[in-house]
Amino acid sequence: MNYTFHWYPAFKLLPKMLIGSITTIEVAFLSILFGIIIAAILAIAKNSKNKIFSSFASTWIEISRNTPALYQIYMAYFGLGTFGIYVGSFGALLIGITFNNAGYLAEIFRGGLRAIPSTQMKTARSLGMNFIQSFIYIIFPQLFRIVFHSIANQTVWAILMTSLGVIVGMNSDLMGVTNELNSLSFRTFEYFLLAAILYYLITKLFLGSAFLINLKLFRY
Amino acid sequence: MNFMSEFSLNDFLYMTKGLGVSITLTLWAVFFGTLMGIIFGFVRSVVGFFLNFIIGSILDIFRSVPLLIQLILANALSAILKFGYSPFQISCIVLAVYTSSYVSETVRSGLLSVPIPFRRSSRSLGLTYFQTLKEIIFPLALRVSFPSWVGITLGVFKDTSLVLWIGIIELLKSSQIIITRTQEPLLILSIAGILYFTVSFCFTRVTGMIEKKWEKYEL
After folding, report:
1. Nearest-5° angle of CA A19, CA A20, CA A22?
2. Is residue B2 a part of any domain in this protein?
3. pTM for this one?
C-alpha cells in the first residue's frame, strides 16, 4: 500500500463541515415538522369515510413507501419542472424527504390511533368538545406518547436521507460540502470518513436528546 | 431539424435492464446479508451482555451513517488498498453488511421472543441442543422475524438506487440517461416509479401469502 493518508487538511476543513451539518439538521427537522403535519392529515383522511380523501391518502402512502427516497427527490427536481415549477436542490431535497416522511409517519400515526380506544373520542365529544378540540386535547397527547419512539427513529432516517441531496446538486449540507471539498483535493477517504463520523455524532446526539425528552415528558 | 428523439421501446428495454441490475444487487445483498445477520443475531442472543454490546454497537454504525457515504468509503478504500473490486462487487458487499445489521436485530428479537420453557421442554423430551434450535426455536422465531425481514428486503431494494453514485447503471440512472436525451422527465420517471412500485408490490403480496399460510400454525 503506497497511499499516504492526509488527515491534517481534512481536520482543517472541519469548521466548514460543521456549518454544513447545521444545514443538514435544518433540512431534517423541517422535513420532519412538515411531515408530521401532513401525516396527521393523511392519517385522518385515510380513516375517513369519504372515498376521495381516503384514496388520496392511500395513494400518497403507497407511493412514498414503495419507491426509493432518491426517486422522490428526482421527481421533485426533474418531474416538477414539467408543470413549470422549478425548485432548487434545497427545495427538491426538502420536498422529496417531506413526501417520504409524511407517508411513513402516516402509517405510524395510523398504528398509534388504532391503539387508542374509540371510546376516548366518544367521551370527549359527549363532554361537549368538538372534533378538533377532542383531537388536540384528548387524542393527540395519548397518541404522541405511543408514537414518540417511532418519530425519533424516523427523524434519524430523515437525517441520513438528507445526504441524498448531493445527487441533485445540493452543496450546502454536510454531504454537499464534503463532496465539494473532495472535488478540490480528491482526498476522498479522509473527507468522507470525517463526514461519516459527523453523521454518526449527529444521529447519536439526536437520539440521546430524544431519550432525555422521553424521560422528561413521560415520567408519569 | 429535431435533435431530440421520442421515448421508444428500446428505451423501455434499457430501463428494464436497469431494473434487472437493481434486482440482482438486491438478491445478492439480501442473500449474504441475511446469512450474516442470522449468524450475528444468533451469536448476539447467546453471548453475555458485554460482547452483545460490542457487536451491537459495531453493527449500529452501519445504521447511523448514510448508505451513500458507506458506498463512497468502501469504493475509496478498495482503490487505496488495490483490491480491484468492481463497483458492483463493492455495492454488493456494502449492501450486504448494511442488510446484516438490520437482520441481526430482527433475528435476535425473534429468537428472544421464543419462551424459555419451550427450550427446556424440548430438551427434556430428549432433543439435543442443535435439534432444539433446528426443530423448535428457529421455526418459531422465523414467524416472528419474517414480517420485518420483508420490510428490510424492500428497504434494501429501494436503497439500491444509491449505487448510481459509484457508477452502476441501475434503474434510476438508466432513466436519468434517457431523460437527458428525450427531455421528458415526468413520463420517464413515472415509468421508473411504476417499475419500482410493481416489484415492491408483488413482493409484498407474495410474502403476505406466505404469512397467511403460516397463520394456521400460530401458537
Report:
1. 70
2. no
3. 0.89
Tens of pLDDT, residues A153-200 = 999 999 999 999 999 988 888 999 999 988 888 888 889 999 999 999
CA A84 to chain centre: 26
Q: Give the three-state DSSP class for A48.
A: coil
3-state helix, strand, coil in chain B (%, to 5): 85, 0, 15
What is the distance in angstroms between the Cα of A62 and the nearest Cα belonging to chain B? 9
**Residue B145 domain-assigned?**
yes
| B48 conformational bin, left if phi > 0, alpha if psi -120 to 50, beta if neither | beta
Q: Residue A193: what residue type?
A: L
Contact A188 B72 (CB under 8 A): yes
Nearest to B186 among A79, A196, A204 (CB): A79
Domains and CATH numbers, chain A: 8-217 (1.10.3720.10)
Question: Which residues form the domain of B211?
Answer: 9-215
**Complex ipTM more than 0.90, yes or no:** no
pLDDT at A1 over 90: no
Considering only alpha carbons, which residue of chain A is nearest residue B83?
A1
Return the residue of B nearest to A161 by Cα.
Answer: B66
Which tens digit of pLDDT belongs to each residue from A8-60?
877 888 888 999 999 999 999 999 999 999 998 999 899 888 899 999 999 99
Q: With CB atoms and an 8 Å threshold, state whether A81 touches B185.
A: yes
φ/ψ of residue B140, rounded to 5: -70, -40
Task: Tell me whether residues A70 and B192 touch, CB distance under 8 A.
Answer: no
Q: Is residue B4 part of a domain?
A: no
Q: Quote the mean pLDDT of chain B.
A: 90
Over residues B114-158, the pLDDT tens digits come to 888 998 999 999 999 999 988 889 888 888 899 999 999 999 999
